[in-house]
Amino acid sequence: MLSSLISTLQGSPWLWIFVLLASPFLGTWLLSNVNARRSRNGEPPLIPYTVPWLGHGFFVAKDITGFGTWARKRYPHQDVLTAVVAGTHMYIVFDPKLAAIIYRRPKYFTFDPLALLSAKVFGAPQHDLDIIAIGTHGVARAPGYQDDGRRVHFDLHQLFPMLLEGPNLATMISKFMNALTADLNNEFPKDQDASGEWVTLDICDFVKKRMTLASITSLFGSHLRKIWPRIYEDFWEFDEVVQLLLLDLPHVLLPTAAARRKKMLNRLLHWREEACKHKSFEEIQEEDPDWDKYWGARLVRMSHSVLLKNGISVEGQEVFSLGILWGQNSNAIPVGIWMVVQSILDSDLHRRIRSEVLPHRNSDGTFDMNGLVTNTLLKSMFLEALRFSVASPSLRVVMETTQVSNYTFHKGSRVLIPGRELQMEKRVWSPNNEVPDALEFWAERFLDMDKGDNGDAERAAEAREANAQYADTDILKTKTKTAGTADRRRPKTSTDAISLPSSTTSKTIRDRMLSLRPFGGGVTLCPGRHVAMYKEIATLAILLSHFEIEVDEKALGTTGRPQPRTCTVGAMAPDRKLIVRMRRR
Ligand code: HEM
Which atom of ligand 1 is nearest to the CA of 392? Predict the structure, then answer.
């Protein structure tokens, strides 16, 4: 057989060329298959690959969520795997208990390089990147690097929770609700001839636009919308290219993406110039209002102040504004859309939500928000919307070679915790088919009356550890007039966005909470999670109490039910329209 192969090769130079070209791939495949069958340096089992050095790099860069799903399907019983990704090893952790251990050891598994990468992705100039890199763990040092003690990411990280909770949160939510209500009143005017007439529209698009504009007002003040009439379109056009920008390629290879980012940054710089015409940065800082029509929320201003103190340029400060604008909108809004969509698709759920919402409506049409966010059905629905529609791939860099359970994680490697896979795990979310399948949306999934403890307690302890890091920092003490004690800044455990509804005590459900990872975990657990929860629940309450909304069954028959668009990172928007008839009640 071998001799006939050799004689065939001798007769055909093209075959030789093919064999020569294919041999590195074949060799890599054979070698990686051999390696996959034995433990190398105690690492988790290797996923065989074909392309030398690159391994699964292209797949990961193109669709990290899809890569997690593929790996899970192929190796359904492995708790951790090793993939080769552009010359480095990446450990994919499917076991929620191991994931929790990793989140809780930030010294060994750092988020720092991702913070630096996001500054780059949103367009920070090199001068600012050099400052942000100071003291950042897990990144290569440029020649001449000097540590002068500046810690931009750490300073911001300390600031976020206080600015996104307590009185600051309350102000942002009230501005959000006021803007949303005003826009809805504009679009569906009360007491006019057309009032009460049915309007046919795509509810996904409608909620997206209304939530985006109200969120922008709550963060950047109402003036921004006046000077930037296309902000809604520009923002979502920019959002479409963020995944491309994450590839960190030269601008010439991504001209559209680079141009859209530039447009966003220029507009934000213009916003700042306009705000300065109204009051200088020093004046507004001295005055320190919770929110200002031109300067927006304290969050934006205080973050700029920390960046300025660290020597970050004005352009770099607006890079941060862009990051916060994107972080808030691109994640919180699709989840908000899903909550509305699911409540419309299920008429029984729709009726029950309305009956839970209405007792919290005040006589002037506003809402008791604390009553809403502690309502057990609404909380369960919010958690289910996160589970169903958010795919957060948490990434960490291994700082020291470390033992995790039976595996050795080597220094310099990466860790990927694929949130989507944890949240879709059938064994966890619908064991023995006792409850609706993990792929289905089930608003009551987090409600149960059994007694017990565990996973949720673990998560609460994790959140407490994260919170302890922020308490009593100098920045908070000196700069904020309205934020008082640590107690005032912290939401009660039962209103924390990742806690279970207060009535749920079932051990099974509590254990599942370790597998709910939309907001990452550990010290960088998303500080904006409460903002997201309040805005999403507020939107649902306002829409369902002020409007009659009915599915257009004929259109639904043609398009089918919306599904999450799974090839995205973070919150996954519905993949199609949902046409409804809507009118003011
Ligand atoms: C449903 C909505 C949201 C989701 C799914 C989400 C998800 C995440 C995730 C996965 C992380 C990284 C955590 C880690 O790997 O440990 C993160 C960090 C962060 N998020 Fe969110 N987020 C949401 C809403 C928001 C909002 C509304 C804001 C601000 C208004 C925000 C601000 C931030 C910030 C500033 C960080 C960085 C934290 C740090 O470095 O210390 N997020 N978020």
Answer: 10
Distance (Å) from CA 162 to ligand 1 centroid: 14
Q: Which domain holds residue 245?
A: 152-584
Residue 119 lies in a domain: no
Q: Does residue 1 have a pLDDT over 70? A: no
CA of 524 relative to ligand 1 center, distance in Å = 8
Residue 344 Cα to ligand 1 middle (Å): 28
Give residue 525 CA to ligand 1 midpoint distance, Å.
7
On the question of pLDDT at 494 being above 60, the answer is: no
Ligand 1 contacts CB of residue 215 (under 6 A): no
**164 inside domain:** yes
Is 526 a known ligand-binding residue? yes
Going by C-alpha positions, the residue among 264, 262, 275 that lies closest to residue 330 is: 264
How far apart CA 281 and CA 268 sit, in angstroms, is 15
Centre of ligand 1 to C-alpha 559, Å, is 33
What is residue 485's predicted lDDT score, i.e. its pLDDT?
Answer: 38
Q: Does 525 contact ligand 1 (Cβ within 6 A)?
A: yes
Rounded mean pLDDT of 534-550? 97
- The three-class DSSP label of residue 391 is strand
Residue 8 structure tokens: 């065939």
Number of domains in the chain: 1
Is position 143 within any domain?
A: no
Angle at CA of residue 543, ends 381 and 578, nearest 5°:
75
If you take atom 32 of ligand 1, which residue's CA is the nearest one?
Answer: 528
Q: How far apart are CA 98 and CA 402, in angstroms?
A: 13
Number of CB atoms found within 10 A of residue 449's CB: 8
Question: Which of 526, 530, 569 most suits a substitution to test ligand 1, by most atoms within 8 Å of the C-beta?
Answer: 526
Would you say the CB of residue 535 lies under 6 angstroms from ligand 1? Answer: no
CB of residue 394 inside a 6 A radius of ligand 1? yes
Q: How many CB atoms lie within 10 A of CB 255?
A: 9
pLDDT at 317: 98
Q: Which residue type is seen at 211?
A: M
- Closest residue (by CA) to atom 12 of ligand 1? 520
CB 443 within 8 A of CB 381: yes
Which residues face 414 on adjacent strands?
90, 397
Q: Does 192 score more than 70 pLDDT?
A: no
Could you list the beta-strand ranges (E) of 270-382.
Answer: 291-292, 296-297
558, HSE (Cβ side, Cα atoms, 13 Å): 7
CATH number at residue 527: 1.10.630.10
Provide the β-strand partners of residue 291. 297
- The answer to whether residue 292 sits within a structural domain is yes
